Amino acid sequence: MYATKGNKGRKELVLNEQDWVWLHLRKDRFPTKRKSKLSPRGDGPFQVLERINNNAYRLDLPEEYGVNTTFNIFYLIPFAGGADTILPRKGPVTRAMSKRLQQDWARAAEEGPRVFMNLKVDF
């Protein structure tokens, strides 16, 4: 009874290998990346290398992070674009920039190539 009420609004998220995700940066796991509360809380997109189970995934993180590459699904957010839509970034990726990029990619899927975040991109 408690589980059905608690899980009422939740949807199960299962990622596959080669999917792209955003990673939430916790202060205790990424102390060098989260020095200030004004630092971005997320980074990415990163590719899923392996699905360990429905809750744990191994990501393709650069060596500079210096942490274990296995993460709980709670810290992963699906990336709307794909490998062909990843753009060079200007500065950190914030939630506002992430939303704007996703809106631009959705618009580009309908209209074709255009300019994203003042960067010219051809598909």
Describe this structure in words.
With 123 residues, the chain is of the alpha+beta class. It folds into 2 domains: 15-79, SH3 type barrels (Roll), CATH 2.30.30.140; 89-123, no CATH class. The protein is built from 2 helices and 7 strands. A 5-stranded antiparallel beta sheet has the order 4-3-2-1-5, with no helix packed on it.
The chain-level structural class is alpha+beta
- The CATH class of the largest domain is Mainly Beta
> Separation of termini?
50 Å
In terms of DSSP E residues, the strand content is 15-25%
Strand order across the largest sheet: 4-3-2-1-5
The number of helical segments is 2
Instruction: Report the mean per-residue pLDDT as an integer.
Output: 78
Characterize the main sheet.
5 strands, antiparallel
Contiguous runs where pLDDT drops below 50 for at least 5 residues: none
Shape: globular
What is the CATH third-level topology name of the largest domain?
A: SH3 type barrels
Q: Give the helices and strands as they follow along the chain.
A: HEEEEEHEE
Describe the structure in brief.
With 123 residues, the chain is an alpha+beta fold. The protein is built from two helices and seven strands, in the order αβββββαββ. The longest helix is centred in the C-terminal third of the chain and has 17 residues, at 95-111.
